[in-house]
UniProtKB/TrEMBL annotation:
It is an enzyme of class 4 (lyase). Its cofactor is (6R)-5,10-methylene-5,6,7,8-tetrahydrofolate; FAD. PANTHER family: CRYPTOCHROME, CRYPTOCHROME CIRCADIAN CLOCK 5 ISOFORM X1. It comes from Aequoribacter fuscus. This is Deoxyribodipyrimidine photo-lyase. GO terms for biological process: photoreactive repair; response to light stimulus. PROSITE patterns: DNA_PHOTOLYASES_1_1, PHR_CRY_ALPHA_BETA. Residues 2-135 form the Photolyase/cryptochrome alpha/beta domain. The keyword Flavoprotein applies. Its EC number is 4.1.99.3. GO terms for molecular function: deoxyribodipyrimidine photo-lyase activity; DNA binding; FAD binding.
Length: 467
C-alpha cells in the first residue's frame, strides 16, 4: 500500500498547493495530511497571539476542505522543532508512510529541522520538497554567478525568467477514496476577538478579498497605497503569510487586471506586482544569507552602529506616546488591530532607528510579537532597510520627518483622529504637530515629543558616520 503524508506548514490551503498536488498525483495512494503545532517554538520566534489565533482558525477551515477531499488531517502537538524531528518519523512509521511531501521553509531553524528529518527518514521514507512560499523557485543569480542583493536588477531578471517560464497554478485535488485510518486530531479553539471579523479565515475569504481588490482597488493602488486613512491596499498580507492564498494566484489575478502583462502595463497593477516580487526578493535573501534570520545585520558594518540603550524612549514608541501624532497613531493601530499600514511601518521603523537611535532588532521583535501578518523575510527586510543595515537599504542620511510625512499622507488627519482620539478636535493643520499649549489644554493630555527632530537627525548622522 502506497501512503503519502503531506506536511502542511505555511501553506494552509488546498488550491495551488504544490506539495499537496504532487502528493495526490497517484490516484491509488492513500493521502494523509499533517500539521505540527509547536507553541514553544512559536514563542521563541516571537509569534504574535493574534497570528496564532489566525493560524488555528485557518487550520480549522483547512481541515474542513481536506475532509471534502477525503484527506484526513493529523495534528501533532509538539513543543519545538526538535520534537518534530522525533515525532514526524515516528508518525511515518506508525502510519506506514512511504512518501513525505512538504513545501520548503527558508529561515535557518526551519531548514535545520528539515535536514534532520530527511536524515532520520533516509532509506525509510522518500522525501519530496517543493518551493511554494514564493512565486518562483530560488536560485536566481547575476551574470557573474552571485546572488542578487539589490532589488531593481533582481526584479528585471525575475521578470525575464517568469516570461520564459511562467509559474504554474495547480488545481485543488479531486476527492479521493477514503481508506486511511488515522488517530483523531484535536484543534485548539481560539477565543473570539473583535478583529477576527476583519480577518475571516479560510481560502474562500482570501480569494474573495483578492477578487474585491482586483475589481475595485488595484487600479488606484499606486495613488492610494500610501494613504493610511484610505482602503487602498490589498489587505492580503495575513493570508499570504499563513499560506491561505498562493502568491502565484495573486500574481495571476494582477496580470489579468494588467491586461495580460506582468510589467509596463497599468500603474496600479504594475505597482502591486512589484510588491509581490519584493516578497520573492526577501525570500531569496532569507535563503541565501542565513545570518539575517540569526539576529544579525545583512551589512556586517551595521553591527558597529552605536545604538542607544533607552528603555523609556522604547516604551514610549511601543505604547504610542512619542508626542508625534502619526507615529503614535501607527503604533496604536498595531497594538489594537494586529496590523499596520505599510507606509507607516517604514515611518515608525525609521523613527525608532534614526530619531531615537534604538537598535532595529528591538523594533523587529516588537512587530513580530504583534503582527497578524508577521513574516520573517519581509519584516526583517523592512526593518533593515529603514535602519540602513540591510539589502537595498535606504542611505543612512535618508531620515523621514514624521511631521512632513503626516502632512503628506494623512493631510486631513483622519487616520490620526481614528487612533489618537485625544487630538480629534484639533484642526487639520494643528493635528500633525500640536503646539505645547494645545497639548496641555486637551481633556486627555498628550505628551510632549520624546526628542527634537533637528537634534535627533544630527545625532543619527554622527552615529552612522562613525561606522
Amino acid at each position: 500500500m502506497t501512503r503519502h503524508l503531506v506536511w502542511f506548514r505555511q501553506d494552509l490551503r488546498v488550491y495551488d498547493n504544490t506539495a499537496l498536488w504532487h502528493a495526490c498525483l497517484d490516484p491509488e495512494a492513500d493521502v494523509i495530511a499533517l500539521f505540527c503545532a509547536t507553541p514553544q517554538q512559536w514563542r521563541l520566534h516571537d509569534m504574535a497571539p493574534v497570528r496564532e489565533r489566525f493560524l488555528w482558525r485557518n487550520l480549522t477551515a483547512l481541515k474542513e476542505r481536506l475532509g471534502e477531499l477525503n484527506i484526513p488531517l493529523v495534528v501533532k502537538h509538539c513543543q519545538t522543532f526538535e520534537d518534530c524531528v522525533q515525532d514526524v518519523p515516528t508518525l511515518c512509521e506508525a502510519l506506514g508512510v512511504t512518501n513525505l511531501y512538504a513545501n520548503c521553509e527558508y529561515p535557518v531553524n526551519e531548514q535545520k529541522r528539515d535536514r534532520a528529518i530527511r536524515e532520520a527518514l533516509a532509506d525509510k521514507v522518500s522525501c519530496h520538497w517543493h518551493h511554494d512560499f514564493g512565486i518562483k523557485p530560488l536560485g536566481l543569480l547575476t551574470k557573474t554567478g552571485n546572488p542578487y542583493t539589490v532589488f531593481s536588477p533582481f526584479k528585471r531578471a525575475w521578470i525575464e525568467r517568469w516570461r520564459a517560464d511562467p509559474a504554474p497554478i495547480y488545481p485543488a485535488p479531486e476527492p479521493r477514496r477514503c481508506s486511511a485510518a488515522v488517530p483523531g486530531s484535536e484543534l485548539l479553539a481560539s477565543d473570539k476577538q473583535a478583529m477576527d471579523q476583519f480577518w475571516p479565515a479560510g481560502e474562500d475569504a482570501a480569494m474573495n478579498r483578492l477578487a474585491h481588490f482586483c475589481e475595485d482597488r488595484i487600479d488606484h493602488y499606486k495613488a492610494k497605497r500610501d494613504l493610511p486613512a484610505e482602503p487602498g491596499t490589498s489587505e492580503l498580507s495575513p493570508y499570504l503569510a499563513a499560506g491561505v492564498i498562493s502568491p502565484r494566484v495573486c500574481l495571476d489575478a494582477a496580470i489579468r487586471a494588467n491586461r495580460g502583462d506582468i510589467h509596463e502595463g497599468r500603474q496600479g497593477p504594475d505597482t502591486w506586482i512589484s510588491e509581490l516580487i519584493w516578497r520573492d526578493f526577501y525570500i531569496h535573501i532569507l535563503d541565501t544569507y542565513p545570518r539575517v534570520s540569526m539576529n544579525r545585520c545583512f551589512r556586517v558594518e551595521g553591527e558597529k552602529i552605536p545604538w542607544r540603550n533607552a528603555p523609556e524612549d522604547f516604551a514610549a514608541w511601543c505604547e504610542g506616546r512619542t508626542g508625534y501624532p502619526i507615529v503614535d497613531a501607527a503604533m496604536r493601530q498595531l497594538v489594537q488591530t494586529g496590523w499596520m499600514h505599510n507606509r507607516l511601518r517604514m515611518l515608525v521603523a525609521m523613527f525608532l532607528t534614526k530619531q531615537l537611535l534604538i537598535d532595529w532588532r528591538e523594533g523587529e521583535r516588537f512587530f513580530m510579537q504583534h503582527l497578524i501578518d508577521g513574516d520573517l523575510g519581509a519584516n526583517n527586510g523592512g526593518w533593515q532597510w529603514a535602519a540602513s543595515t540591510g539589502t537595498d537599504a535606504a542611505p543612512y542620511f535618508r531620515i523621514f520627518n514624521p511631521i512632513t510625512q503626516s502632512q503628506k499622507f494623512d493631510a486631513s488627519g483622519a487616520f490620526i483622529r481614528r487612533f489618537v482620539p485625544e487630538l480629534r478636535e484639533l484642526s487639520d493643520k494643528d493635528i500633525h504637530m500640536p503646539a505645547p499649549l494645545m497639548r496641555q489644554s486637551l481633556a486627555s493630555a498628550y505628551p510632549e515629543p520624546v526628542v527634537e527632530l533637528k537634534f535627533a537627525r544630527e545625532r543619527a548622522l554622527a552615529a552612522f558616520k562613525s561606522v
